[in-house]
Amino acid sequence: MPPLSIIICCANAESTLGAACESARWADELIVVDSGSVDKTPQIAQDHADQYVVEPWRGYGGQKQFAAELASHEWVFFLDGDEECSPQLAQEWQGFAGSQLDRLDLLMVPRKNYVLGRYVRGWWPDRLTRIFHRGRVTWDDEVLHDTRQASDPGRVRALSGWIEHKRHSDAGFSDYFSGKRMDERLLMVARQMHSRGKRARAFDLVFRPWLAFLKFYLLKRGFLDGTFGLLIAQKAAVSTQLKYAALWSVQNGLDPADTGPLT
Q1: In this structure, are residues 173 and 181 in contact, taking their beta carbons and an 8 Å threshold?
Q2: In angstroms, what is the C-alpha Rg of the chain?
Q3: Per-residue model confidence as pLDDT tens digits over 173-202
Q4: Which of 132, 165, 198 is the last residue of a domain?
């Protein structure tokens, strides 16, 4: 098994960073990259990490690419400050032989998401490109997420061990349903969609929100979670409607001034 560097990029994560770091103790190296915390994040990071680095925010992909270069090892695993590595994922990594990983560039990691303290059935498996050989992947230019691509689809493996997201978070209603935050995020996505040639049509505005609702409420079995599952499906529908409304705004020259990076 090759050595592994776990890197946590975060800011103002005092309520969750300790648990994130504890879940990563099995790694050969732990690095925390802080984009400018004003709470107790620095003290917590310095108590746990082999390296603690403060770096101004470079964007989602830019921050992670900077952080990957700090690693002492070629295999890198990214956690966020509000995530934890499950014991099952740690055991799965530790079971890999070096000869197996020589044939791989990228490991897809599923994530269990929690909203208001409850597991979101409809968002599973939410597979992410979090474990990778940093010399054998390319980085995608996504405005809201950092993603990577293997040199060949055959050099990717999906893992069964998972990441826990916001399991112990104190995030409240406004973190998930804030109109202002949602608008800022969706405008960023809409600008990128427009730059890639996508356009909002009547079909998108009328039908896509309903399709999103049906996906998360019926196909992903959100109905089994009662009112909570209904709330998650409605959130998906509203987000989809606003995304295409933002795209329509951009393509018609009605885009407001860039608000800059989110905090």
Answers
A1: no
A2: 19
A3: 777 776 666 777 888 899 999 999 999 999
A4: 165
Give CA–CA dist 248/150, Å, rounded: 33
The distance in angstroms from the start CA to the end CA of the chain is 37
User: CA quadruple 191, 181, 37, 109: dihedral positive or negative?
Assistant: negative
Considering the domain architecture, whether residues 30 and 62 belong to the same structural domain is answered as yes
* pLDDT tens column, 227-254: 999 999 999 999 999 999 999 999 998 8
| Residue located via tokens 């001034």 | 257
Tens of pLDDT, residues 87-129: 999 999 999 988 999 999 999 999 999 999 899 999 999 999 9
> Does residue 27 lie in a domain region?
yes
Are 11 and 109 in a shared domain? yes
The three-class DSSP label of residue 137 is strand
Amino acid at 20: A
**Cβ atoms 162, 88 nearer than 8 A:** yes
DSSP string, 25-68: TTSSEEEEEES---SSHHHHHHHH-SEEEE-----HHHHHHHHH
What are residue 51's DSSP bridge partners?
31
User: Which pLDDT band, with edges at 50, 70 and 90, does 256 fall under?
Assistant: low
Alpha carbon separation from 112 to 66, 83, 170, 223 (Å, rounded): 26, 9, 16, 18
Question: Same domain, yes or no, for 107 and 182?
Answer: no
Shortest CA distance to 20 belongs to which of 71, 77, 81? 81
Cis upstream peptide for 125 (omega within 30°): yes
| 84 and 203 together in one domain | no
- Structural domain including 199 reads 173-251
Residues 50 and 131 in one domain: yes
Tokens at 160, concatenated = 């069964």
